[in-house]
Amino acid sequence: MLALLLAAAATATTATPAPPAMQSAAKPAIVRTKDGRVVGRETTIPFASQQGLYSWTAGPTDSSVYVQDNFGKWYLVKMAGPCMMNNIGIGLAYSTGPTGSFGPFSKIYSTEPPHMSCPVISVTNALPPASHRKDRKEKS
């Protein structure tokens, strides 16, 4: 009987933790907007064809803009290729997808020369751009 217990103990395996090099990296912290939306998550802007978009400002690249809906929510819109060249002095117009939402089937147009048309490739939830944040520090 003792031999059976020793044999069983010898064949029993115990889980050992993986070495630190094989463990996955720590998950990045999830950043949320004040209304709980996850920043960077793909989305669409519902009812853009009826309620419109309130404002826009230049994005971090030549192929992106920040847009704000009529509820005060900010989104980062990425376009196919350099398009608006961060020219915040031009007016913008847009078309929505078939459901009236603003998203990857939409386009952004400049209303002034050179009248560019820019296909939207993604819309993600965003924090307000730095120029529109209430908590930004004023420079003296």
From TrEMBL:
Keywords, sorted A to Z: Signal
Segment forming the signal sequence: 1-17
Protein name: Uncharacterized protein
Organism: Stakelama sediminis
